[in-house]
Inverse folding.
C-alpha cells in the first residue's frame, strides 16, 4: 500500500512514521524543509512541496497513492485546498483532519472520504482514562461499539473464562488474552515475552496482570467499568 501524508506536524509525522513501521510505503510531504529533513530517514520518501501546486503534486506522482492523509491542522485554508487538489488529481481515498465542525463540513463537501477529529477523539480518550484507568486501549469500530484492551484486576484473578461470567453478566465477548510469560535469555537474565491467545477457550484462566481484549457495546462496557471501579 502506498500512502501520502500531507503536513508533518506532530500528528502528521507520527501518522507517517507509524504507517511506515507497519509496512506501508509512505510519501511524507510538507512545505517546511526542516520537518521534511527530520522525517526523511523514517519513511519511504520525504519531499518538500506545496500541496496546492498541481505541478508539484504531479511531479511526486501523487495520483499513484492508494490513500492520502491530509494532516494539516493549523491552516484550514491549506487543508481544504490540499483535499481539493488530491481529489482533482484522482486520489481515490482522502482522509482529512478537521479542527472544527465547519472545517469538517467543508472537507466533506469537497470530497474527503473520511474525517478525523483529533481534538474530539483525544478528549474521549482522556475522559476514558479518567473514568476507566484500567483500560489500556479502546477502539471505536462502529457507532456505540468498541474493542477494549484492559486488565480486569484481582476480582477475576484465577478464574476461567466460564467462571468470570463476563459474557453472561455484561454481554461482552472476550476475543483474546495477552499474557506476560517469564523466561531466561541466552545471557542468563530474567525477561518476559508477550504471548497472545487469539482463540481463548472457556477453561482458559485469567491472571491478575493479563490483558483481556473485549468487544461489545458502550453501555455494557460502562456497566463493567462501574463494577471494576467499585471493586
Amino acid at each position: 500500500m502506498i500512502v501520502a501524508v500531507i503536513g508533518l506536524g506532530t500528528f502528521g509525522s507520527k501518522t507517517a512514521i507509524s504507517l511506515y513501521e507497519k509496512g506501508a510505503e509512505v510519501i511524507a510531504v510538507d512545505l517546511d524543509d526542516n520537518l521534511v529533513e527530520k522525517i526523511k530517514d523514517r519513511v519511504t520518501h520525504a519531499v518538500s512541496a506545496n500541496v496546492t501546486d498541481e505541478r508539484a503534486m504531479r511531479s511526486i506522482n501523487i495520483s499513484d497513492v492508494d490513500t492520502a492523509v491530509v494532516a494539516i491542522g493549523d491552516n484550514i485554508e491549506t487543508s481544504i485546498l490540499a483535499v481539493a487538489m488530491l481529489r482533482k488529481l484522482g486520489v481515490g481515498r482522502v482522509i482529512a483532519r478537521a479542527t472544527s465542525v465547519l472545517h469538517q463540513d467543508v472537507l466533506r463537501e469537497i470530497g474527503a472520504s473520511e474525517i478525523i477529529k483529533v481534538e474530539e477523539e483525544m478528549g474521549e480518550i482522556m475522559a476514558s482514562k479518567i473514568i476507566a484507568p484500567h483500560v489500556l486501549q479502546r477502539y471505536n469500530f462502529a457507532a456505540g461499539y468498541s474493542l477494549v484492551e484492559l486488565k480486569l484486576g484481582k476480582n477475576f484473578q484465577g478464574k476461567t473464562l466460564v467462571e468470570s461470567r463476563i459474557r453472561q453478566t455484561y454481554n461482552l465477548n472476550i476475543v483474546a488474552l495477552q499474557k506476560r510469560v517469564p523466561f531466561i535469555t541466552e545471557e542468563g537474565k530474567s525477561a518476559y515475552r508477550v504471548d497472545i491467545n487469539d482463540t481463548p477457550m472457556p477453561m482458559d484462566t485469567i491472571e491478575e496482570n493479563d490483558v483481556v481484549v473485549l468487544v461489545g457495546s458502550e453501555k455494557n462496557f460502562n456497566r463493567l467499568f462501574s463494577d471494576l471501579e467499585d471493586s
About this structure: The mean pLDDT is 87. The chain has two domains: 2-118, 128-230. The longest strand covers residues 173-184. The radius of gyration is 22 Å.
